[in-house]
Write a structure and sequence with these properties.
The protein is mainly α. It has helices at about 1-25, 25-50, 55-60. The chain is flat and about 55 Å long.
C-alpha cells in the first residue's frame, strides 16, 4: 500500500509542476478562458451539488420543528 501512495504523490507532484509551466507560458490564454469557466461552473454546481443539506422528509410528512422524531 505504501508504493501506491508514493506513486500517487509522484503523479500529483508532476501534474502540479506541468500545470505551473503550462500556465506560466500561456497565462493570457488561460485568463481569457476564466470567464467561460466561471459560467460553466454555475450549471455544473447545480447539477452535481447533491443537495445533502436539505431535509425533505420533514416537508413530505408534514412534520414541524416541534416533532420529536
Amino acid at each position: 500500500m505504501k508504493w501506491e501512495r508514493k506513486w500517487t504523490l509522484l503523479v500529483a507532484s508532476l501534474g502540479v509542476i506541468v500545470a505551473f509551466f503550462v500556465l506560466r507560458e500561456h497565462w493570457a490564454h488561460a485568463l481569457g478562458l476564466a470567464t467561460y469557466l466561471l459560467l460553466l461552473a454555475c450549471p455544473l454546481m447545480h447539477l452535481f451539488h447533491g443537495h445533502g443539506g436539505h431535509r425533505h422528509d420533514q416537508h413530505e410528512h408534514g412534520a414541524g420543528k416541534d416533532d420529536p422524531r
